[in-house]
């Protein structure tokens, strides 16, 4: 929680408030004063767009944008922070406090104290600097562990170093023994079991992808192997008591049970690919460091979704031509929440939500079975052709609005920026939220670094290709010689041999592709490249530098793997 160190531009208290910290070690006190004195107008300008609500959401979500922004600025502007913390008085010379004494400091007037791993910290002056505003007071007078347990991102050295600057004492041994272990209040303790084959990018929240070599074994991705992208703990939802609330329409809020969705509305099936905006981020990171989960090429999967059309539910709730005159967006709010009660949220344009050709579902089945907990049980939104962040899982509320969602994930994440934008200059209000994704493809076999037996003189290359907005992939070009020559791969649209092509503009599912070609002679090493072309003749860019962005999103340059040729 203790991330963005700022002074007059973000605090109402300034020097006077810092001087009120009677128990702060002298070295830390002097360092805090220096932070205030070094504040400049540039800090104000860059931080003015980060409201406390969105800052808190980003902080608890560990989404990377707000956290990385704060840490980058802290490290860049105040390199003496760690040194100052190290010169503070040793813990052995600090006073010992009882839990009762700590509990008396629960407000700005009395001071805001917290405990962490047996230490006592006076964070009073940090409250006004905190991007989450005074919501940090939820932990006042008590332990940080139940709050920090929500996201393992807090348990990193740089975060703990910042916290150490606020240490004023130790918690007495007797009260320390009484504190519940963090594990007992772990909000992730009820998360579902996952398949061990998944490659984990983070445990809390759980984010993982299947190995590339099994990703394209099947046109329909089994739910166990479907990539997992969670921002918060998986909620426990009782399907019998589940209620979906629809707001913003004439006549007031309307609620639908799971049974209502299944019986009052026709069931529709849509085969659609879902891709994370950060898919292939690890490749962009190799060009220049970015902030975010280190996804490989498998943060994308394809499933058959079944449920009620969002359009039908909105019409039943009162949507009509009069609403269309003023409404522009449809908001979704999940039942997954952080410790403050803030839920994951997103929105999509109204025309996508209500179009007969938009195919947006309130899905309650995945691949012919009830949706698994990790994928949104009992009901999730599926927005075909759009970034996965808008397909809100465990959806509990829908709202029709004239404005875009104010959720952190709509306003302060999942946006693209030019290569020249860094954490000092980023302005999230200057960029639109990502909706449709660009054309994408990747090689799933052979793997990078694989040894290829040359005995039969041929090489088979496999992969996937997909484009957002319902644009069909019409061609995948493959090169076995680093881009000098190209061959066209064979595309597969389904597991059915003679399935009809999708209607124009409604190609929601990926294409699997394969090429078997002679090995180029003579060669000891090959660079294999793929690039896809969609129905609008959009093609992947050749390299990452022109599309580099600080969050590593929309990473869709040509995919390359290098293999070694060995004698059979």
Account of the 3D structure:
Residues 94-172 form the Cytochrome b5 heme-binding domain. Its EC number is 1.8.3.1. It is found in: Mitochondrion intermembrane space. Its cofactor is heme b; Mo-molybdopterin. It catalyses: sulfite + O2 + H2O = sulfate + H2O2. The protein is α+β, with helices and mostly antiparallel strands. Helices cover 20% and strands 26% of the residues. It contains 17 helices and 27 strands. The chain has a five-stranded mixed β-sheet with strand order 1-5-4-3-2. It has a five-stranded mixed β-sheet with strand order 10-9-18-13-14. Strands 11, 12, 15, 16 and 17 form a five-stranded antiparallel β-sheet that branches. Strand 9 (243-247) and strand 10 (254-257) form a beta hairpin. It is globular, with a radius of gyration of 26 Å. The N and C termini lie far apart (57 Å). Residues 1-91 have low confidence and may be disordered.
């Amino acid at each position: 929680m203790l991330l963005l160190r700022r002074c007059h531009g973000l605090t109402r208290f300034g020097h006077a408030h810092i001087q009120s910290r009677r128990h702060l070690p002298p070295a830390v006190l002097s360092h805090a004063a220096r932070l205030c004195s070094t504040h400049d107008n540039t800090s104000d300008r860059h931080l003015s767009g980060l409201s406390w609500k969105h800052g808190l959401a980003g902080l608890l979500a560990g989404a990377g944008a707000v956290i990385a922004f704060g840490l980058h600025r802290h490290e860049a502007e105040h390199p003496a922070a760690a040194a100052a913390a190290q010169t503070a008085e040793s813990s052995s010379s600090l006073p010992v406090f009882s839990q009762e004494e700590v509990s008396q400091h629960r407000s700005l007037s009395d001071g805001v104290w917290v405990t962490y791993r047996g230490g006592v910290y006076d964070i009073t002056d940090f409250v006004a600097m905190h991007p989450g505003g005074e919501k940090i007071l939820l932990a006042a007078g008590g332990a940080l562990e139940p709050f920090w347990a929500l996201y393992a991102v807090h348990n990193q050295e740089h975060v703990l170093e910042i916290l150490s600057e606020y240490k004023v004492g130790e918690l007495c041994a007797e009260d320390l023994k009484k504190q519940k272990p963090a594990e007992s209040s772990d909000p992730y303790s009820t998360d579902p079991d996952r398949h061990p084959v998944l490659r984990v990018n983070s445990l809390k929240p759980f984010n993982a992808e299947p190995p590339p070599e099994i990703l394209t074994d099947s046109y329909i991705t089994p739910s166990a192997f479907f990539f997992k992208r969670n921002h918060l703990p998986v909620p426990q939802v009782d399907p019998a008591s589940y209620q979906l609330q629809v707001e913003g329409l004439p006549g007031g809020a309307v609620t639908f049970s799971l049974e209502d969705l299944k019986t009052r509305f026709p069931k529709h099936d849509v085969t659609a690919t879902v891709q994370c905006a950060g898919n292939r981020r690890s490749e962009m990171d190799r060009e220049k460091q970015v902030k975010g989960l280190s996804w490989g090429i498998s943060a994308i999967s394809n499933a058959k979704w079944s449920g009620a059309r969002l359009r039908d539910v909105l019409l039943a709730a009162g949507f009509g031509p009069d609403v269309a005159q003023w409404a522009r967006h449809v908001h979704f709010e999940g039942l997954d929440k952080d410790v403050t009660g803030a839920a994951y949220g997103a929105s999509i344009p109204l025309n996508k939500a209500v179009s007969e050709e938009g195919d947006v579902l309130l899905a309650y089945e995945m691949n012919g079975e009830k949706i698994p907990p990790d994928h949104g049980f009992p009901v999730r939104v599926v927005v075909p052709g759009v970034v996965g962040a808008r397909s809100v899982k465990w959806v509990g509320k829908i709202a029709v609005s004239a404005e875009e969602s104010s959720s952190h994930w709509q306003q302060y994440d999942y946006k693209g920026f030019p290569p020249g934008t860094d954490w000092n200059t980023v302005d999230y209000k200057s960029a639109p939220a990502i909706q449709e994704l660009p054309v994408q493809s990747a090689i799933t076999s052979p793997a990078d670094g694989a040894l290829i037996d040359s005995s039969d003189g041929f090489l088979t290359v496999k992969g996937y290709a997909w484009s957002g907005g319902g644009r069909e992939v019409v061609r995948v070009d493959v090169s076995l010689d680093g881009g000098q020559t190209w061959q066209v791969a064979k595309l597969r649209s389904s597991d059915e041999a003679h399935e009809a092509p999708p209607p124009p503009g409604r190609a929601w599912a990926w294409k699997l592709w394969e090429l078997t070609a002679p090995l180029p002679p003579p060669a000891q090493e090959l660079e294999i490249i793929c690039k896809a072309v969609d129905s609008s003749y959009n093609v992947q860019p050749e390299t990452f530098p022109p599309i580099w962005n600080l969050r590593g999103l929309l990473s869709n340059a040509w995919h390359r793997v290098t293999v070694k040729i060995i004698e059979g």
